[in-house]
Amino acid sequence: SKILVTGASGFIAVHVVHEALKAGFQVVGTVRSSDKGDYLTELFSKQYPGKFTYKIAEDLEAPGAFDDAVRGVQGVLHTASPFHFNAEGKALQALVNPAVNGTKSVLKSIKDHGTEVQRVVITSSFAAILDPARTPPVNYTEADWNESSPAESEKLGDKQASQPAYRASKTLAERAAWNFVEKEKPQWDLSTINPPLVLGPILHQVNAPEKLNTSVSSVWGALHGSKSEDDLPGALGCVVDVRDVAIAHVKALQVPEAGGERFAVTIGQFTQQGVVDVIHDASWIPEELKKQVPIGKKGNYNVTQNNLSGAKAEKVLGVKYHSFKSTIEDAL
Ligand code: NDP
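# NDP complex -> structure
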C-alpha cells in the first residue's frame, strides 16, 4: 500500500522513508523544494526503483498544503515540524505556529481528501512528556504530559526563548492532534512517537557541517572541540537511535494495537562522558580530532537526571534498540 511522509527531507524522516520502503510500502514524501525531492528520489532509486515519489508542500501552514498529498494513501506519517533553537524574538512565528498549524492542516487535509487513510502517526517528542516544572530525577512514561510549557508559551508570546518554545510547540501540536481525533471521530486512528534526543547516522542532504540538523550537530560539536572537561560527566538526557525511531514509525502504522497510543522510544539516559568515551575508544578516529575532546573520568556516568522508559515500544511495536555505542559511533 501507499503512505505519505511529510517533511521527507528531514534527518528522522529520510530514515522513516527508508524503513517504509524496506517494509514494502510505496512512499510519497512532501518536501519544501524540488532540489530536496530530487536528492531523495536519487537516494532511493537504485534499491527501490519507482517506489518513492515526492510532492512540494512549501508552507506547512498554508491552507490545503497537504490536500493533494493525502489523496490515495492509506497511512500518513507526519514528521514535518521546525526543530532548531534560533528563534529568539520570533518564537511563536518560527516554532510554535508551524508545529501546531501544520499538524492541524495535515489532519484537515486528511479529513477532506484522505478517504483511504486508516492510520496517522505523528512524530511528537519527549518534550511533550517531560514537564520542566518537575524537579529531576523523574521516571517518565507515556502517561505523563508536559503540563507547564503550553501555559508558559501562551503568556510569553514571541518573547519566549527558543528551547521552551520548542517544548511548547511539540506539546501543543500533539495535543491538537488528540483533540482533533476526539472531536472529529475520524475513520482513521492516531499514534504518536515520542523520542528524546535522536542521534545516529545521517542519510539526508547536508552540504556543510553547520547545516547539520540540531540533534546530530551536537555529536559533530563533541568531536570538534565544543566540550570542555567542565562539561563532564554532565547530563545528555535520554537518547535513541534514529534507525529505531524510524522502525517505530513504520510499526506504528502496521500494528493494530498501536492505534490510540503514544510511544516513547529510547534506551534511557546518557551523559556527556558517555559520548567522549565512545570517541576515545574508537581506534579509527584520528588523534588530531581526539586531542580536541576532553577525557574526563572514563565510565563516570553518575549524574542526576530524568529518565524515560522505552519499554512499551519494545513490547507493542517490537522495537529492538541499538546500543548507545553504535548510535554514537555511526553518528560519528
Ligand atoms: P530536521 O530539521 O532534520 O527535520 C525537520 C523537517 O521538518 C524537515 O523536513 C523540514 O524541512 C521540515 N520543516 C521544518 N520547519 C518547517 C516549516 N516551517 N515548514 C515546512 N517544513 C518544515 O529535524 P528532525 O528530523 O530531527 O525532526 C523531525 C521531527 O522529529 C520533528 O517533528 C521534531 O520535532 C521531532 N523530534 C526530533 C528529535 C531529535 O532529536 N532530532 C527529538 C524528538 C522529536 P526542510 O528539510 O526543508 O528544512
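# post-check
The radius of gyration is 19 Å.
The longest helix spans residues 91-113.
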